[in-house]
Specification:
The complex is a heterodimer. In chain A, strands 1, 2, 3, 4, 5, 6, 7, 8, 9, 10 and 11 form an eleven-stranded mixed beta sheet that branches. An eight-stranded antiparallel barrel of chain A has the order 12-13-15-18-19-22-23-25. A two-stranded antiparallel sheet of chain A has the order 21-24. By secondary structure, chain A is mostly beta strands. Chain A is built from four helices and 25 strands. Chain A is about 10% helix and about 45% strand. In chain A, strand 16 (about 320-325) and strand 17 (about 330-340) form a beta hairpin. Chain B folds into two domains: about 1-30; about 35-210. In chain B, the strands form two sheets. In chain B, strands 2, 3, 4, 6, 7, 8, 9, 10, 11, 12, 13 and 14 form a twelve-stranded antiparallel beta sheet that branches. In chain B, a hairpin with a 2-residue loop joins strand 6 (about 80-95) and strand 7. In chain B, helix 1 crosses helix 2 (about 15-30). The longest helix of chain B has 15 residues, at about 15-30. The chains are: A mainly beta, B mainly beta. The interface of A and B includes residues 255, 298, 302 and 471 of A.
Amino acid sequence: MTGTRRRTARGAAVATAVLLGGMIPGAQAASGVQEIDAELVYTCEFPTGRQSVKVGVSAKIPESARAGQAIQPEDVALDVTLPEGALAGPADSAAATVSAETRLSVDVSQGGQQARAEWLGTTAVPSPVPGTGELTLSTSGNVPYVKPGTSGGLTLDAAALDVVLDLKKADGTPAEPPSVSLNCALDGDQKTVLAAVDVGDEGEEGTPEPTPSDALPGEEEDTAGAGDIPEIGAETKESAATDAPPCAGDPSDDFALVAYVTGYANVEKLNGATKFPAACTKIKQGPSRLVPGEDGSLHVYQDSTADLEYKGKPQLPPTSGTFLTFGFMPTTAKLEMTQIPSGTAADGTRIPNIHSDLHIFNGISENRTDINLEFMLRLYDVEVNGVPLDVGDACRTSRPFTLRLLGLGWYGREDPGYMLVTGGPLTGSVTIPPFSGCGVGEDLDDIFTASLSGVTNYVKQIQGAPCIPVNGSNCTAENEPTDIPKATR
Amino acid sequence: MRNSFKKIAVAAGAAAAAVTLGATTATAGVAAPTWTVGPSSPLTASAASTGTVTLSLNGIPLTCTTSAATAALKTASGTTGVTVGTIAPLTWSGCTSPFGPVTPTANTTTPWGIVANTYASGVTTGYISGVKATLSVLTCTFTVTGNVPATYNNTTGQLKAASTAASTYKLTVATASAGCAGIAAVGQNPLYTATYNVVKSGTTTKPTIVYTP
């Protein structure tokens, strides 16, 4: 935990106060602060096997609050102590430094109802990996507030912990393995309560808060109160067959393909997934390169270029997402994913973002297709608890991020998997960077950063069979793809 | 028989052999060399592939689960390079490649030929002539034309088509679209391998082809 991180956390707290000031009439500062200082023992799954990990949790949280009042934990920090040798790897690729991201699940209970908040943290700077002895990694970050709907005792309990370790060699290049993900479970027979908060009645000046079900007609009555975390995209009315956007290919282009793609992206922080409706992808097929292998096999490499198109822009069709800010506040937003097209090489050709390797041997082949797409994510039409929140026109990720997708296919097997010509499942991951430019007259960046950024999210997209306009394969009369895939998880 | 005759002809000199053959035919009244189709001629035959059908180009395999054809067989005179039948139509199905499914289309507007060259122990060796087919995968479309070496076995009723890099009879890429760059180029020689079970259409009778010198 560093000064930099502390400032960030305070910044978030300030932003939170600004938001709450606009959102919660009558909200007042709580009196009295309690300090959380817990020592917990987890058992984590390391690549080398299960090992015990000590975790210190520290934070400040109000001793008491009123119903409808936000309880904001501050100065949240975790000290994760890894046992000696936990990061040992091959000598020539051993990690010299390690960075960490932590996600502590915190169960919030009140009156028999429970919800789960995620406390995220990152290390400020990489830590050297010691030759001997334990390694303690300190992480900190912004965490969501808790807003009790009624009076009564409220408790926060530590639950599962996930840790992602980013390992680098001394020269700064990725170590082997480049990262390690740890799923950690609390050992039994230990006190897991982090804090207890006394929640009183709203008071005369207080205004009853709208419940999530009030804010989101159609949701279950007990959606938030019972801790039933809504999924992102649950509100999306989506039918690929009817919502597929125009996607006509150019029959005069010898190398053109057009294909629909649809799928889900998990948002790990929110235990949910958002569904992206069918999007039009325009692919420029590149030439094939045949490279014989030393073992008598043959590699066929093919590099192509994919550009999304939606209403003339390189975008996925906008989709609605429902997620939680501060753990409890149901927030809806339109998500606009805009592709940053791959660049142009010195010879004027496009830099490919699809790389296929067909490895042919003994009459069969294993095919690998890597697709890397650069995106910016913009949020707009945001509503928090049913109340519009003006985030401005430029509430977007602070930098582009890469969606990496992998398609595996097999020629000569019953399940062909993914092939460019047939489509199929593409899986991968994406990590959303921090947000910037959010808010009009007030800085709301940290709120969305805390809710959406920083954790690797699983993505599964289904590509349909492409229309090949030059020969009419899989094309409608308008040279659009006939195959409109359905998203699967 | 014909091979023996050819050896004699080579030994005696081509001109002399021609004179001898002509004299023999004229004086003894022996029938001209004939490729005889049985059990009757002409007959219509049906061919269905057995096992996998393969076309490979530049080491990239294309396989089809089935191929089927109809052939018209007819007794014909001559010694070598004798057309004893035609093929039309011919189809492939269940075809795939490392790139994914492929749909080859046979162009039999001008029927392909079944040409006999040599005969031994009930096996006729020759080739399939006038092959013309189009293949498409992704944006690559190319046509293949030419000939495929083939044998027909009277006992098994199997027509085996199999070309190798050393074959006299070759298939050649005649046209290739821009999208074929790196996969197929004009002038390259794909290799075709298939075995067909042949019967007289509507029966289980295996046709025969017998050479009589």
